[in-house]
């Protein structure tokens, strides 16, 4: 049982050896693919740097086009914004004035119609009343006829005489004032074309964009020239940025390294096959030993007969003893070889793991390499001397590796922003900053004269004159009262019928004939004069009512409009300069911000410091939806190549399986010693002896 317990760990150690040997061989064969991937990434880094830099610089064209578009639309962007501050209040009061101008025109027309109709109806009314007076006089003369003195007819004549008063005047339009004075005053108000003055007020607001465009022509031209100068300045940045030049230095080194690697790979694979075969032989020998032990234990246990003497043991038990002794013999011959491989792999694997892999993981290795004057006694910082030819610049392997691991730009990782790059870019930024200050100075010269008068003094005076024209003070009740009366006190046709009935009761004669003639005359007056007059009188009554409604509260309306007009004009007069200054500054800030955002984004893109977020936060730089996802020379391939060489190839592909190999084989080798002792003892009980041994209790 003890021997079996020793064999299981021994077997596990051998399995570890086989697994480590296979893992090491498999991944060594993948070195070619790993090298191809890393060299391809490094070449991509070199090849895309130039196009990425061109891309960043080319975005200035987009920025300039956007700025030019805003400059071309200064009428809408600046003039429109200024106009928006004036339209709400200005248009409301101008709409009120415009409506009042229309009311003045309508009132004038209606007033003249009323005055004309009043004059004409007065004249027609006098003609009617004159005709009725003639009829009345004729009837009075006829009633003096002797027939009326007869007692039988006197009552009838008296009845007719008593009814003559119904032919008197019922309407006295003469007592109503003719409206000539009011008409003249309103006409005087209309002499000022208030509608055209209101339109001029509208125009003073609506033409603000055009006035802004006309007054800013020189400033726009100056700013455009400045923008073109900035473009010329930016075009020179590519020649001053040494990223491509610096990276191209490594191209030959990469080519040489790649050619050396591919040249040595066949030799490495050849020696790797020798190593694999050696490790395989060791594992197979140990496996053979374990096979002998397992077979010996198996045959010995199943063939053992406790009643048999040593000379009479069976063939199976004897075979088990032979297998055990064979395992012991092989162990004696090859154990030293196994121990030699264990020591060799332990020295290599353990030391690489402790001296290279662990320090690489916690970056202590970089700190050792970065020790001043360690790799080159003439250079304080080896990497800065190799890359920048300036060994005094604090450029360390740890810093570059960390920055590249975070996928920052090579510009940031290699500290070119503080060394060579600072010499190239800083003057350009100063020049561009000077151009931006020049643009701000040009915008500050902007002096816009946008005086806006809603309504001239003549228009304001017309409103006030209309309010005191007297149309509101007319005694409309008296006009309405008179025009609402019927033309006659009695209906003439009924009066004529009654008169005819009385005449028919009289005896034939001159009196009767006279009465009948007057009856016909009354009917004729009614048909030819009164009937046509009644619609005109009703129309006059309606016109007076309409005029009364139209001028009701006239003075209050005009006063409110004038007050609102004065208030709005005061707001425009005192607030417009501040509005112009504020909107001009905001417009200038928008134009300038395009380039400030562009410069910030370009710098962050070159440095690789979250350039995407910087650009996306500056949404005013580009049209909505345009996104930039490139960063200049993101150097993660450098960190990846270093990780592949050290962490992946050296540590994971070689060191770890080698450590597993020596651990497994070493454990199996160590367990061989007690296994040999136990195997020898067991073989004594399983093998057939040539002589009997005597045992005592």
- Helical/strand content category: mainly alpha
Run of helices and strands: HHHHHHHHHHHHHHHHHHHHHHH
Radius of gyration: 61 Å
Strand content: under 5%
Number of strands: 0
Count of separate DSSP helical elements: 23
Helix content: over 70%
The gross shape turns out to be elongated
Q: Quote the distance from N terminus to C terminus.
A: 24 Å
Mean pLDDT: 76
Low-confidence stretches: 417-427, 609-630
Largest sheet: none
GO molecular function: cholesterol binding
Keywords: Glycoprotein, Membrane, Signal, Transmembrane, Transmembrane helix
Protein name: Prominin-1
Family: Belongs to the prominin family.
Explained architecture:
This protein has helices spanning 2-29, 31-72, 74-142, 151-163, 180-190, 194-206, 208-215, 217-235, 237-240, 243-303, 315-361, 364-369, 382-387, 397-405, 410-413, 420-444, 457-467, 476-483, 492-505, 510-551, 554-607, 611-617, 636-686. The protein has 697 residues and is mostly helical. The protein has a domain at 2-50 and 273-364 and 639-686. The longest helix has 69 residues, at 74-142. Mean pLDDT is 76; it is low at 417-427 and 609-630.
List key phrases describing it:
697 residues, mainly alpha, 79% helix, 0% strand, elongated
Architecture blueprint of SSEs:
Layout: H1 2-29, H2 31-72, H3 74-142, H4 151-163, H5 180-190, H6 194-206, H7 208-215, H8 217-235, H9 237-240, H10 243-303, H11 315-361, H12 364-369, H13 382-387, H14 397-405, H15 410-413, H16 420-444, H17 457-467, H18 476-483, H19 492-505, H20 510-551, H21 554-607, H22 611-617, H23 636-686
Helix pairs in contact: 1-10, 1-23, 2-8, 2-10, 2-21, 2-23, 3-5, 3-6, 3-7, 3-20, 3-21, 5-17, 8-16, 10-11, 10-23, 11-23, 14-23, 16-21, 17-21, 18-20, 19-20, 21-22
